[in-house]
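Annotated sample (chain length 429).
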Amino acid sequence: MNRQSQKKMIIVGMGERAMIYAKEALAHPELFRIVGVVDVRPERVDLAKRTFDIPEENCFSSVEEMVKRPKFADAVINGTMDQQHVETSIPVLKAGYDLLLEKPFAVNQEEADRLLSCAHEAGRKVMICHVLRYAPFYKEMKTLLSNGEIGTVLSIQMAEHVSYFHQSVSYVRGKYASPKLCGSGMLLSKCSHDLDIMAWMLNGIQPEKVSSIGTVSQFKEDMAPEGAGTHCLLDCPVERECIFSAKRLYLENPQRWANNIWHECGCVGIAEEEKEQVLRKPDNPYSQCVYRRNLQIVDHQSMMVSFANGALGTFSMVGGSSASGRRIHITGTKGEIYGTFEDQRFTVSLIDPREAGGKKEYVVDVSSAQKGNAHGGGDQAIVRDFISILNNEKPSLCCTTLDDSMIGHQLVFMAEKSRERGGAWMEVK
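Output written by the structure step:
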């Protein structure tokens, strides 16, 4: 192995997302290695130190401490919480590091502009982790659009259905349940992927106006089952019948997102018999009644976008669904493309007066490449693309620079302003 060809990277914010990206260094040591870590939690620093064999002198509790050292790596992987992205990214950019930054890269337009200005002034490369672009489902769709398969795009309709267990874990009981906790509303923390996909499919055409409405329609007190208590395991006589029972969701039938609970409670790796005791604590939000959490973000939201070329876009976030699902339907002057991400296939329907029914259809099946992966393999592909950029190689079709990612973020920021004003049309400047 030629270590001179390796890129060196530092992890800032040793959370779940950063670990996913960083572990590619173990799978592909010829490409890069992790040489430093920054995290306020000593146990996370220790985990990174052991996992990647990081020397003690390269372990830090703050970015300010890290940048005092002379530059000792090529780039930083920033996996901090959303509201910390800008304040932790600007120092590393000024210190000369390129950056792979988790989405959303900022929680408001002012922060976004400040980060973009800093990146330009510092002359650094910044990639945003919109990993869904790299999923075969969206990548193949984008390729067909770029080749003019359905002509000029007239309309793009998208929806994300958030499963009841993911919704309850992350957006009702968890760290994204309030702007005070995560710095933004649900549209940004959950759906920035989707709005980025919308902007990407329209090939960078600028949005002109945005309108949005949203409400808390399910997770509120008057929707609680009759006789419900305040805590699933302490005072709720209807716990056995409730679909949001913490005992059912996190102990008896643990879904994918149950892992987040033990991570956030600092209980990763604890014995099964100890988990119920953790949930029984009165102040544990993960076993408090979802209907009595005084939810500070919406659980349903829809928006409409008018683009500069006349195309229209719609997007709906639907919380509390029976299963997760991302749906997309793009209409062009020559035909349509539509499908559901989780089905791992989409349909192309082309206008053809010669055919019975006036159309010709075919299905694009990406299941062999996507393999049921939650992000379609995008988590791994984006790291490899980032390394290509560090090596001054041509980026892939899916690459999302900071400048490129700005459009999708603007859509979210304008939608939130519109929602706060009862759906008023907001001009995108």
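Annotation: The radius of gyration is 23 Å.
Annotation: The chain has 16 helices and 15 strands.
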